[in-house]
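Regression report. Comparing outputs from two consecutive submissions.

Submission 1:
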Amino acid sequence: MNKLTQFSTLFLFLAVVFISNLAIANDTTAKQQLKLKLASLVTYQANFEQRVVDIENTLLQQATGRIVLQQPSNLYWELFEPNESVLLADGENIWNVDPFLEQVVVYGANAALDDNPLILLTNPDSSKWLDFEVTQSEGQFVITPRQPNGGIESLRLVFDGDLLVELESKDGQQQKSLLTFSEIKQNKTLPPETFVFVMPQGYELDDQR
């Protein structure tokens, strides 16, 4: 998994935390329980450890970093050295900053989400949930598309009470990316400039919008 693919996938994956304006019915299905948990989140901050493994559980990549999210679609994602990179989503664009290449790649958020299961979690059109299955086991939820398209095959969300503590995605090649969160701060006020992108001086811009 290259760095760009990893960042694009993880942005879509982590957007799960910030659903807004979804219609929430008063029933006990796994899907409705997940909606209730996600709708209660406003902001989320945490450090994380990441492990990417292949189908034989061989470690492909290991990293640490920090994540800050805000409802509905704002994300600041940073990988620490030696894999340093920054991903920033402001609701309209996704900015991928690569210090090693001194390059910024920007994508339109809507286009990036269009073919991904997480469209249902970032789109206020709750009918999108009909395209996915959700199962629940104790504090975890697994989301799978009814018609797999070769991208993300499943998303697993693990909660400790109301706190999101783990996220795991599995792709079409059976690679798994597991994020384990620590030092979690939920629903704390964030500075308004947290999700404002500023082009680093001297960097090249690759506009993919």
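Submission 2:
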Amino acid sequence: MSTASDRLLLASIHDVSPRFESEVDRLIELLAPHVGDRLAMLVVPNHWGDAPIVPGSPFATRLRGWAERGIEIFLHGYFHRDQASHRDTADRLRARLMTAGEGEFLGLSREDAAVRIAEGRMLLEDVIGRAVDGFVAPAWLYGSGARAALADSAMPLAEDHFRVWSPATGRQLARGPVITWASRTRLRLASSLLAAAALRQVPLEVLRIGVHPPDCRHSALVASIEKTFAKASMKRRVGRYSDLLAA
């Protein structure tokens, strides 16, 4: 059985994009007292097709600076927008109920997913000057095509809502739900506050906490995020996703 000091805390900021630059800055400030630079940024190359990361731009320079500080950089889809037609009933329900049209990799074919992974990876690695640390699908939603493309991609890590794994080998590296918040409706906001309060008490081996740009626009969510990180960082070792590969 692990002790409290053995247990990991992994932090991530999702939807890092020029579109949300000010919100990302606010989230960095919010997390810094608890995790410093030991966090992951999930970067969208061209959010919804009209917020591209342009090499040489001020945002690209900032992204490289974050990477040089030791912040992990994950490819987070390509457009973050779901434009697929879902034939499978379960996928249609997941696309409608679990995200607001942002499950980009849920309905992609293996070929289309592979192209977006390769192009996104090439762009980010050119910008940051090193390899990306992994891949996380928007809304943590993967279809069979995306999973197959990931297995071919040689990405070190991938994550969904309930686990972290090695795409190349299929080896599970961490298990347990991510603590995250939602603000799309009042019901989702209230339920995410309750879920965070409960999950931060669970003695998981690896506790993952993911924040999104809209979170910092709601005082109740900001308070919950601060409390969650404060409690978790007191009882856990703040780590990086790459620590899971060494375990």
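Expected: both submissions complete independently.
Actual: both completed, but the second showed a warning that disappeared on reload.
Relevant detail on submission 2: Strands lie at 8-16, 40-43, 72-75, 134-136, 158-159, 163-165, 172-175, 206-211, 237-238.
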